[in-house]
Amino acid sequence: MSAYDPKHYAAVPLRAARLDLEPLRLDHAAELTGALADPALHLFIGGAPLAEPELRARHERLLAGPPDPATTMWCNWVLRLRETGAAIGTVQATVAPGGAEIAWVLGTPWQGRGLAREAAVVLADWLRQRGAPSLIAHVHPDHHASAAVAGAAGLAPTEVYEDGERRWEWHR
Known about the structure:
Layout: E1 14-15, E2 19-23, H1 28-35, H2 42-45, H3 52-64, E3 73-81, E4 87-96, E5 99-106, H4 115-129, E6 134-139, H5 144-152, E7 156-162, E8 165-171
Parallel strand pairs: 5-6
Antiparallel strand pairs: 1-2, 2-3, 3-4, 4-5, 6-8, 7-8
Helix pairs in contact: 1-3, 4-5
């Protein structure tokens, strides 16, 4: 691809040292319901754990794509721990003309092992290789683990806060 063009993005299988990043499918909802069930997971990201029907409905909306796919793409992956085969979380990128906004969620049983870091680095590298001019993430100021993940993915904190979260950025 010679020029950065969001409409040319689509989630493809990616691989990290210990993880497979699988493009989101509807059948992932059953596995992720359990992986993301801990209410403590939502301390910094808000909301509450979703039951399988609600998570499946959310996946249907994500897979349907954004309102204007000519200018914005939604790329979503499920993180699968290669060692056990368990689905343990997700990463996502909203790709637009100015760059991509990235996010990650990892079930609490798998936190603290560097797995979110692996996934975010692989995602950020993939976006850079495809020409993304910038990457953005929003991290709760008290979520030090997510701040470390953003830093490992090459993003730096800014002084901008949106909805109580600090904006982290990387620019080409």
